[in-house]
Amino acid sequence: MGDWLASFDPETTLLIGRVLGAGLALGLGGIGAAIGMGLTAGSADEAIMRQPEQQGPMLRTMLIGQAVGGSPSIFALVIGLLVLFIAVGDADAAGGNAFMAFIGAGIAIGLGCLGSALGCGWPSMKACEAVARNPRRSGQITQAMVIGQAIAQSPAIFATVVALILVVGTQSGTDWLLMGALVGAGIAIGASALGAGMGSGWTAGGAVEGMGRWPGAHGPTFRTMLIGQATSQTPAVFGLLIAFILIYATGGMTNEFETFAKLIAAAIAVGFGGIGPGFGSGLVGGAGCVITAPKPEKSALFLQTMLIGQAVSQSTAIYSLIIALLLIYVV
To answer: How far, in Å, CA of 220 to CA of 223, rounded?
Structure first.
């Protein structure tokens, strides 16, 4: 890969990295927001058909949900613009490291925003249904929706932090070690944030649905939602950890192609290994919220069962983290 990059003049190498990074950021980052906002609008249309006299509250809930759900795509837009236009200094010195930094940033923000934006779509969709069912509680339902969406955006914020570090902290040169660390960091946080964002949103959707059907159980259901969302984001924390290790704690490794391969493999392990556990934990969390709402007196029992189920479903994320650490420091 280093030889391939060296075949281009420095300006061309930098331009290729910029356009690919920006394309990944917006191409992937815009998918989830569009789907999530579409789910919200479709749900609002169906709700208005059933309760046309409640058009006002449902339209308000829809617009708020779409506005909040579209935020991850704004993160992707900002990173995409930075990738395209940030000053690198001497293009001759930037080399393959800048190329890989831009690619890594695009992967990080693109996948991270894809998951969180999809996650934001589910609670807003459920909120429109809930307002149609219980319009007198529209304020309470909208509040729960917005809080659930905000938490579901945490993985996208993790991805944004890593992307900013990659773009702003671009180092000059072309070497296997740093190139692997830069693009690997983007893969680690981007892929792991994908599942965590979707899972957090699914949990919030279950809570909003439960509150809409059984508004008297708002407190226990809301508590279950917060705990379920926090647990669903564990794989993204693992991905963030490996991303930081790759960026800041691999300086003593050898500068060889084998090192590049190990760092990429570690990023793939913890990143893609976190997609299933993040989303799977969200499925458990959503179910826990739905069953807590009709029987709040049993909330402690349901919460215990939910946490045990989430812990077991995240075992593969822990295995992936172990493999990633072994690849970086042992193999």
So the answer is: 5
Burial class (CB in 10 A: 0-12, 13-18, 19+), 325: middle
Which residues in 14-49 are b (16+ Cβ under 10 Å) and which e? bbebbebbbbbbbebbbbbbeebbebbbebbeebbe
**pLDDT per position in the chain (331 positions), as tens?**
545 555 566 778 888 899 999 999 999 999 999 999 999 999 999 988 888 887 888 899 999 999 999 999 999 999 999 999 988 765 555 566 888 899 999 999 999 999 999 999 999 999 999 998 888 888 899 999 999 999 999 999 999 999 999 998 766 556 888 889 999 999 999 999 999 999 999 999 999 999 999 988 889 999 999 999 999 999 999 999 999 999 998 877 888 889 999 999 999 999 999 999 999 999 999 999 999 999 999 999 999 999 999 999 999 999 999 999 999 999 8
Q: What stretches of 51-90 show up as alpha helix (H) in DSSP?
A: 55-69, 71-85
pTM (2 d.p.) = 0.92
Of 159, 108, 149, 126, which Cα lies nearest the Cα of 46?
Answer: 126
